[in-house]
């Protein structure tokens, strides 16, 4: 199956408010006769079907155009947050305050998941605090309320049990103040040896802390979960055996966890 069949659709860009984000080419362009987009799509697909007999590479294009036609009708409605109640908007912190943008992302994540989108990613940038750690509290205020709202909303709608939520950052952080250019700053460097992520829903145990670091947070001392283990566990929760999820390349089989990965059964409900 061509990789383009499973390619993600991006909404917005880093630094752009999600409020103004849109998917290009989904709006109708009038003045070209009745249903010009549908006519053009039908012609393109007819030509693609003819090419399919010559090369299988065009299959991904055909599938993408079929999907785009479905998205043209469905996506605008899913992205319309005016369909939500004021109570829901307030719960996500969508009120023009510091949590407004990320709140919109989280609410869209719930709406997309509810409409059948299988994988949704939200992001919050600006956490690489090599300096300016005193601004951490105000940064945390942008995401705290929306995350809590997303989990509560999924739960009250009966979606959390079948939706796996992963929250993770780029790195763990060192426990001491960082020195930059010979000057001590209020910030922390990267730390790959003591790194925390959390999972919710999707068959995981609630209220469980797995693993510990040393007293200073430098290094994991118990319950270490390697990245391959995390991938193996997430695939298991999604109903996939990571040892069987393989593809052939260069004469041998590859899988997402390479030759590693153990399912962390202790966190599974």
Automatic annotation (TrEMBL):
<protein>
    <recommendedName>
        <fullName>DUF1501 domain-containing protein</fullName>
    </recommendedName>
</protein>
<dbReference type="Pfam" id="PF07394">
    <property type="entry name" value="DUF1501"/>
</dbReference>
<dbReference type="InterPro" id="IPR010869">
    <property type="entry name" value="DUF1501"/>
</dbReference>
<dbReference type="InterPro" id="IPR017850">
    <property type="entry name" value="Alkaline_phosphatase_core_sf"/>
</dbReference>
